[in-house]
Amino acid sequence: MSGVLFTCAGQRVDIVTAFKRAGARTLATDVNRLAPALYHADAHAFVPAVSDPTYVDALHALVHEHEISLIVPLTDLDHGVLSRAKDRLGALVLLPAPEIVDALADKWLAHCLFVEKGIGSPATWLPDDLPDDLQFPVLVKARLGFGSRGIYRCVDRRQLEFFLDYATEDSMVQTCCRGEEFSIDLFCDLDSRCLNAVPRTMIESKGGESIKGMTIADDELVEVGRHVSETLGLVGPANVQCFREPDGTHRVTDINPRFGGAFPLPTAAGSRYPELALALAAGERPDPRLGDYRAGLYMTRFFGELILSAGEDGTLEPFAEELPQPSS
Ligand SMILES: Nc1ncnc2c1ncn2[C@@H]1O[C@H](COP(=O)(O)OP(=O)(O)O)[C@@H](O)[C@H]1O
Ligand SMILES: [Mg+2]
């Protein structure tokens, strides 16, 4: 049975559970003992913060101790560190090369990379290099933003100047797309062959996470996913966000080289990405199945929770007993 180590497990209960169902033995790690996904794995371990110099060594020790063959990072936080440490972790790390990871983490560098590779991207400028004839509306976007944070829409020069002054983080200015936004959850093998790409609509998002959406049969978007991932040399899972402009062309606005926030939807649609990841870890070379998924499935999300109790040594465990009766 393959051992899979999840880093920065956080709230990604959905992903840990899907790997279990796919037959993996799961080990979840996080720095925070209240990360719910820890308690949904077969085993869990606490690790130092990603910025700690011993982070990689701690993971390496866990790989050895738990006979791990695959490492799956669940947030963006440690992509740079893990991508650089690929060769000394002792297990397969599903991430592209460090320069790609770095570029995708910075929206300005990502834009420059897309332009260089001929991938459609909305016109984007650094604040001190704006053209005089700028067409509005535009967005002020934090270069290192995530979860829709640090994004301000400006309809005229006055607002643009206000938000550039207001923004506390390093920002850029981007043309506002007018078309519909789509999200594509895809998976590439170790040679960056795209094995499948599942597009979905963004019916409703909250705090940058899609909470309502639908898988769609759209060959053009499947091709956008394939082309973009193979051109950039992605490895493992990725989520590509793009707009379809009124003229039918596509503009890529954001790529996360990890499982997307809406992971359960492509999974329900038959993506079988956990199975593909396990196959790669086992040295297999699965064939691409582009377009092989179920369209027309909706996802609508709700909150979940986990109740934990602390034992005498402070260790937290799921509190499995029945809820106490109110005293009369
Ligand atoms: N150029 C754009 N035009 C219109 N809307 C945009 C544009 N860029 C981003 N957005 C909107 O803002 C959201 C968050 O932007 P995104 O670039 O995906 O950053 P992140 O998800 O990292 O916060 C997108 O899902 C989209 O709805
Ligand atoms: Mg995004």
Protein described:
This protein has 328 residues and is of the alpha+beta class. The protein folds into 3 domains: 3-93, 3-Layer(aba) Sandwich (Rossmann fold), CATH 3.40.50.20; 95-120 and 179-328, D-amino Acid Aminotransferase, Chain A, domain 1 (2-Layer Sandwich); 123-175, ATP-grasp fold, A domain (Dna Ligase, domain 1, 2-Layer Sandwich), CATH 3.30.1490. The chain has helices at residues 13-21, 55-65, 79-84, 98-105, 107-116, 157-166, 219-232, 264-268, 273-281, and strands spanning 3-7, 25-30, 43-46, 68-73, 92-93, 124-125, 138-142, 151-154, 171-175, 180-188, 194-206, 209-215, 236-244, 250-256, 298-300, 308-310, 316-318. Strands 14-13-10-11-12-15 form a 6-stranded antiparallel sheet. A 5-stranded parallel sheet has the order 3-2-1-4-5, with helices on both faces. A 4-stranded antiparallel sheet has the order 6-9-7-8, sandwiched between helices. Helix 4 (98-105) packs across helix 5 (107-116). It is globular. The chain starts with a strand and ends in a 10-residue tail after the last strand. The model has no long low-confidence stretch (mean pLDDT 96). It binds adenosine-5'-diphosphate (ADP) and magnesium ion (MG).
